[in-house]
Amino acid sequence: MAAGDTTPATLLNEWRADAGAGAQFSADRGRQLFLKKGSSWSCSTCHTTDPRAEGKHAVTSKPILALAPSANPQRFTDRAKVDKWFRRNCRDVLGRECTPGEKGDLLTWLLSVR
Ligand code: HEC
Question: pTM of the prediction?
Fold first, then answer.
């Protein structure tokens, strides 16, 4: 597993297959999920409400580069990284892992933001 071992399109195809026949991803649902407050955080607490912008970690204040592939082409090209951070961040915010459908919605929205 290394940088460059996947692409946003590959991930979307895999999550679509995992989400089951007829699954349709929605950028609108992805945006709502990103802005929705779960625990005491939402995704936007650290990543800001604009995924083209640099974020800042809510606890450590460390800068976080933009999540949208249009602003940061490195995003969603490293499978281990995507899996690790989706797992950790969804648990932190939602108290559970994100489903393939939710990951597909989120990435569809992030790709739509240019
Ligand atoms: C407490 C702060 C924090 C919150 C809340 C948070 N993230 Fe993150 N996220 C990070 C950090 C730190 C990284 C790793 C550093 C980096 O990649 O810049 C990261 C990385 C990611 C990545 C890796 C993408 C890639 O290919 O490099 C994804 C996807 C992601 N976050 C999605 C989410 C989603 C979806 C939510 C809401 C469910 C969320 N994050 C909430 C801090 C946070």
Answer: 0.96
